[in-house]
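Incident log, structure service

09:12 report received: a user says their structure output differs between two submissions of the same chain.
09:20 pulled the input from the user's history:
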Amino acid sequence: MLHLNVPAEHEGFWTSFFRKTRWLILGALAPETVLLASGGQWASAKRSLTDMEELGATGWTLVHGFYADMTAKQIQYLVQKEYIAVPDITEKEIFDKSKADQITKTIACLQTGWFVTECIARAIQKLAISPLELCTCAFILCTVAVYFFWLYKPLNVTTPTTLIADCSIATILLRAGTDAEKPFWNTPLDFVEPPSNYTFGNWPRLAKRWGETLRPHPERPQPPALRPAATHPVQLARFNLLHHRLRRMVLRLPSHAEKLIWRAACIATEGSLFVHAIAEAVSHHAPLHDYMYIDGYKLHWPANLAFFVPGATYFVARLALIAVAFSSLRSLPAESYVNLQWTRFIPH
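09:34 re-ran on a clean worker, output below:
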């Protein structure tokens, strides 16, 4: 389940459909990216919960933090300056907008857990497992973590909640003083927590083709900027390494060429993530603090090669792994069609 943010009011069916399709393709090619985005949103919601508790707000939960998302810091600012009251919306009302609840997500996790259990049992009984099944198991490792991060995030909410301040936005900006003088990118309240993603600002042609052209940004809440800690890419590299080691242990491929392609792709994906992890760690070092996650080395030549070359290598290698997994279905071993004997696990 992709828990995308609340769409803009002007978005139609096809705009929303293609946005979901892009995320589905990205999740298939790089599931770690979805994991990274969900983890960032979870951390943002946790910070929102802490900030609102410091203001003495009661009833603000993690669900509210997800619902407010990247505007949560701005909501905290407006509440702190007494421009608005704490939003009077309950957790029940928010989940009433959601198209799925924790029960549905739990059932989905149980289904994926049962699939992994079957694959482990087949490996124990020395039964063949298809490469496609092993690929699915590898994706499940990321999927379970994503489900955890998005457990309290409403699904497919299409109608936002409008907050009305007791004064105009112009008055709020004037009272903010010099902090609000800089041009904004997403909303006039960007000065509260400046967005770290200025990629479109530096590449206006890219913004015209792929970015949102309306300002203030009509999407509510704002799309999250990926600002992970330097250790996140290292963790993703460990995830990926675990995936491919598991695949190599019990993998059976029909031809020697496919085995070579598989092993080369595994090495390429692990190596590209390792290079990216090193680049992120260096860019987050104290003397290089100005090199932010997006608006940093990724936009400066030749330092951006440390991002684009491993990134391109990763996607090509991932496509190769998926292609080999599907091509292997043409010649599966006979053991792949043998049913699992669960009674063999019962002591007797």
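09:41 both user submissions now match this output. Likely a transient worker issue. Closing.
09:42 reviewer note: Residues 197-215, 220-235, 245-249, 286-295 have pLDDT under 50 and may be disordered. The chain has 13 helices and no strands.
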